[in-house]
Amino acid sequence: MAGLATVAIGPETYSAWRSTELGARTERLEQDLILRLAGDVADQRVLDAGCGDGLLAVALAARGARVTGLDADAGMLAAGAARAEVAGAMIRPVRGAIERLPFADASFDMVAAVTVLCFIRDPSRVLAEFRRVLVPGGSLVIGELNRWSVWALRRRVRGWLGAPLWRQAHFTDARRLRRLLAGAGFTVEALEGCVFYPPSAWLARTTARAESRLGRLTTFGAAFLAARAIAPPP
Questions:
Q1: Cβ(63)–Cβ(89) under 8 Å?
Q2: Are residues 192 and 155 in contact, defined by beta-carbon separation less than 8 angstroms?
Q3: What is the C-alpha to C-alpha distance for residues 104 and 206, in angstroms, rounded to an integer?
Q4: Cβ pair 98, 4 in contact under 8 A
């Protein structure tokens, strides 16, 4: 689809990553940060935009949210539906383009989007769509890849060496993310980082206790950035 990365990531890629100690620890840290910024989602209408295989969507549903999971990939939606069925969660799967959300204005109380903008050529257009489908005063919880980290350097090198996915990725930083959100009319309430360790399972274990403290002090060196922003009131 126009503006989106042309390299597909299948459910098996996520499964393989989470089956490793490094992948499991890293995913847990990132999701915990997203859920903490989301706060109380009970009975809220939540859109998981770019839901992938449904890991976050199921976690939000377990906290009482009424979740719609949107993805352009039918295989991802099928994997998400299977995950939801096993968990006993009610998720409404919708196939569609994140740049042209197939929902009416003010359809959701919250939008969650994790590692979406980094594969979009025009992030402002996507943020405008998020704002459109949110109720006035609704919240956007967004996670992105930080350019100032060892992980980003490693991914850039992989892209230079020919990895198709990382050749297309666009890394950001805290200042740019704030600027993008403000440009779309959002007010940033919080912005934190996590995954300060290099890509090493041993270092992930040894630095685990310091993660939350570091994330509140700085975003420099964090592989993952997460922000909570509020759509403008009426």
A1: no
A2: no
A3: 47
A4: yes
Per residue in 190-211, pLDDT (tens digit) is: 999 999 999 999 999 998 888 8
- Model pLDDT for residues 110-139, shown as the tens digit of each residue: 999 999 999 998 999 999 999 999 999 999
Q: How confident is the model over 3-16, as pLDDT tens digits?
A: 344 456 788 988 99
| Confidence (pTM) | 0.93
SS (H, E, C) the chain: CCCECCCCCCHHHHHHHHCCHHHHHHHHHHHHHHHHHHCCCCCCEEEEECCCCCHHHHHHHHCCCEEEEEECCHHHHHHHHHHHHHHCCCEEEEECCCCCCCCCCCCEEEEEEECCHHHECCHHHHHHHHHHHEEEEEEEEEEEEECCCHHHHHHHHHHHCCCHHHHCCCCECHHHHHHHHHHCCCEEEEEEEECCCCCCHHHHHHCHHHHHHHHHHCCCCCCEEEEEEECCCC
